[in-house]
């Protein structure tokens, strides 16, 4: 029986004690280890399986962490984590107080850069290389592994443009697997596909060479001896270098190779057969599916509706529209800035663009939202999926800043639906013909209504609703956090004394309703699943100050710190946004001391 090599490897120094011939066995064991853990603990699977050989080769040949290695996107780095002192606690991946699902500087000296968002590696590694040059450390290596369609992003091109005219020791490795979460799109993807089959393109008409890089490849990323040989050669080449590596996402698990979209993050599965373990059927629908099915309904009637997403066709459920209206649905790749300005251009010509971007990713297109949409008052409909706390993906993916960074932009309407019906109705209202752009934010996960597919009703802009009248205490909520508020109120003895208002619009604010609330209630609590600094609660404070109200106001929301990974319910409890914590807070105002 062959000895298990991986059990004796805790960091790259252990790996480097092996003979090159033994690394093939390590690759098999590393794949098995990843599959074994992710099968039961869940997480990103396909990307890390695809770069096992490359991961081993990099840590074997380069002097990490002295040589600096940046992963992009970070969900490729499970093998990297296992080989760098985190094998023993890899089972805690993405769990509360466990290790992060992405490289994280505070977690390990081997994690040189935090990479939860894509297309940052070349810029970061170039910055590191320039720093080494300035310090006189000319022998240090700087490696950026960019894959899962990240190379097509504008930021990656900007960095390539700069790096190509620099005299630094930088190695860019393109992990070319032709897929991000969904299949890669665009002219660059088509070019790279041609390069794989026509080596003359690689040798002659090569766009990377045109940018002054020493280009090599494409090579088989699963041929470990070949990868080792090419990396060994490139260590001796000075200046900016580019290695094109072909890999298969999900390599080593048949089901993951066949269904690369599903097995990007498959949930729990049988580690032998690869078959996914079915979760208990839910009677409730995901908010992303409410969006996806509703836009198709609306697009049938309104021929001007178009759908746009930056590489999140499946995650946003815009795939439903792609199936029905492929010519009116646009996956632009990992290019949030382009997606926003593309939508703006469409709006100038009378189209009705629904631009669906995860809340945390819209941060990357902030200038475009302000300059290209709001300044020109173009009626783009932004649908911000994954708003609020998203769970196990952690700080890089929580959509907790949107209310704060959007509400300060002139002309922009900001709405947060309380439930699935409200989401449908605001989408219906928006496509009727607004005079302003609108941002609609909604969470990851399922709603709480079974019968949500009701006839559309137009929503009056800037109008909040009273969910329950009360006496001394009013709770003002925005979005789906209203469900936790309702549970909290129902758990209190004097629940009928507590007023609950769903403000719905952060902008324009329902000032008529707020005047009624401030005149009737002595104590007011605002609750949001976004950052407490500058968000919905701050809007209410500004209203109170402007109108000289002296009521006692308390703001509840995500504290002024980065919230890390864990289940949404766990993170809500940490932030004091679960029903029990909210009830406790309300109860303080119901005591004789209030």
Describe the SSE topology.
Layout: H1 12-15, H2 23-41, H3 46-50, H4 52-61, E1 68-72, H5 78-86, H6 121-135, E2 142-147, H7 154-163, E3 170-176, H8 187-197, H9 199-203, H10 207-210, E4 214-220, H11 224-234, E5 241-246, H12 254-258, H13 287-301, E6 305-309, H14 319-324, E7 329-331, H15 336-348, E8 352-358, H16 359-362, H17 366-374, E9 381-387, H18 402-406, E10 413-415, H19 420-430, E11 438-443, E12 465-468, E13 473-477, H20 482-490, E14 498-502, E15 505-507, H21 511-520, E16 523-531, H22 536-546, E17 552-558, H23 568-575, H24 579-590
Parallel strand pairs: 1-2, 2-3, 3-5, 4-5, 6-7, 6-8, 8-9, 9-11, 10-11, 13-14, 13-16, 16-17
Antiparallel strand pairs: 10-15, 12-14
Structure write-up:
The chain has 594 residues and is α/β, with parallel strands linked by helices. The protein contains 24 helices and 17 strands. Helix 14 (319-324) links the parallel strand 6 (305-309) and strand 7 (329-331). The longest helix has 19 residues, at 23-41. It is globular and about 75 Å long. The model has no long low-confidence stretch (mean pLDDT 93).
């Amino acid at each position: 029986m062959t000895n298990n090599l991986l059990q004796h490897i805790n960091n790259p120094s252990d790996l480097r004690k092996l003979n090159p011939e033994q690394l093939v066995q390590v690759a098999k064991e590393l794949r098995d280890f990843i599959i074994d853990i992710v099968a039961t603990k869940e997480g990103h699977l396909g990307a890390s399986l695809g770069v096992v050989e490359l991961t081993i080769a990099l840590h074997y040949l380069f002097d990490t962490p002295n040589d600096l290695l940046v992963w992009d996107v970070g969900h490729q780095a499970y093998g990297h984590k296992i080989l760098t002192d985190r094998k023993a606690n890899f089972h805690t991946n993405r769990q509360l107080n466990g290790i992060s699902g992405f490289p994280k500087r505070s977690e390990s000296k081997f994690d040189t850069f935090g990479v939860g968002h894509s297309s940052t590696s070349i810029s970061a590694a170039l910055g590191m290389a320039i720093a080494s040059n300035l310090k006189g450390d000319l022998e240090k290596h700087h490696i950026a592994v960019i894959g899962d369609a990240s190379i097509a992003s504008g930021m990656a091109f900007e960095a390539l443009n700069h790096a190509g005219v620099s005299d630094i020791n930088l190695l860019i490795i393109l992990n070319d697997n032709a897929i991000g979460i969904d299949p890669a799109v665009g002219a660059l993807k088509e070019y790279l596909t041609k390069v794989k089959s026509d080596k003359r393109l690689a040798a002659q008409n090569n766009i990377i060479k045109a940018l002054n890089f020493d280009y090599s490849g494409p090579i088989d990323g699963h041929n470990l001896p070949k990868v080792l040989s090419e990396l060994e050669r490139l260590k001796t080449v000075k200046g900016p270098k580019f290695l094109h590596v072909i890999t298969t996402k999900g390599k080593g698990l048949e089901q993951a190779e066949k269904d690369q979209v599903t097995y990007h993050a498959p949930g729990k599965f049988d580690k032998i057969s690869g078959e996914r373990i079915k979760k208990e059927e839910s009677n409730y629908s995901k908010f992303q599916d409410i969006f996806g099915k509703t836009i198709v309904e609306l697009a049938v009637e309104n021929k001007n509706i178009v759908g746009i997403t930056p590489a999140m066709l499946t995650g946003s459920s815009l795939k439903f529209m792609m199936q029905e209206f492929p010519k009116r649905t646009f996956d632009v790749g990992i290019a949030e800035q382009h997606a926003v300005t593309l939508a703006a251009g469409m709006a100038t010509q009378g189209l009705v663009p629904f631009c669906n971007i995860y809340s945390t990713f819209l941060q990357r297109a902030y200038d475009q939202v302000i300059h290209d949409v709001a300044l020109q008052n173009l009626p783009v409909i932004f649908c911000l999926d994954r708003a609020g706390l998203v769970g196990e993906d952690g700080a890089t993916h929580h959509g907790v800043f949107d209310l704060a960074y959007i509400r300060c932009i002139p002309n922009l309407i900001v709405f947060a639906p309380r439930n699935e019906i409200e989401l449908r109705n605001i989408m219906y209202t928006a496509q009727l013909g607004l005079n302003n752009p609108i941002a609609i934010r909604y969470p990851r996960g399922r709603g709480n209504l079974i019968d949500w597919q009701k006839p559309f009703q137009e929503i009056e802009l800037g109008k909040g609703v009273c969910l329950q009248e009360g006496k001394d205490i009013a709770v003002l909520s925005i979005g789906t956090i209203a469900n936790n508020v309702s549970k909290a109120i129902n758990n209190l003895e004097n629940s009928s004394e507590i007023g609950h208002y769903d403000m719905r619009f952060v902008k324009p604010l329902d000032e008529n309703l707020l005047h009624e609330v401030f005149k009737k209630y002595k104590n007011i609590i605002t609750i949001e699943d976004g950052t407490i600094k500058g968000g919905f609660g701050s809007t209410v404070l500004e209203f109170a100050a402007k109108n000289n109200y002296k009521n006692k106001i308390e703001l509840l929301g995500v504290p002024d710190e980065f919230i890390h990974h864990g289940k949404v319910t766990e993170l809500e409890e940490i932030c004091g946004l679960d029903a029990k914590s909210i009830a406790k807070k309300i109860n303080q105002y119901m005591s004789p001391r209030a």
